[in-house]
Specification:
The chain is of the alpha+beta class and about 100 residues long. It has one domain: Ubiquitin-like (UB roll). The chain has a five-stranded mixed β-sheet with strand order 2-1-7-5-6, with helices on one face.
Length: about 100
């Protein structure tokens, strides 16, 4: 199962500068584990453990085929061959 994962600039140090990498997994959680096997350290930038529960970091947005994973199962969101996963850091700040 080949899944294209689009990597934001801030995380490309983990992928050797690659904008997109291929991964495998039946769920987002399995895909992140697969990515971390090939690109050590990237998982820690995407997920966190709090009170014994693993979840996406608060300021990381992940989309599967343009759908926000928080509305389609979070880390349990299912994946299929040919899906595209996009990782986007949330942007905040500025002044009024």
């Amino acid at each position: 199962m080949a899944i294209e994962v689009r990597i934001p600039t801030i995380l490309r140090t983990y992928t050797g500068g690659e904008k997109a990498v291929a991964g495998n997994g039946a769920s987002l959680s399995a895909l992140i584990d697969d990515l971390d096997a090939g690109h050590p350290g990237i998982k820690d930038r995407l997920v966190e453990e709090k009170d014994g529960k693993v979840d996406l970091r608060r300021f990381v947005n992940v989309y599967i085929n343009d759908e926000d994973v928080r509305f389609i199962g979070g880390l349990d969101a299912p994946l299929s061959d040919g899906d595209q996963v996009v990782v986007l850091p949330a942007v905040a700040g500025g002044s009024v």
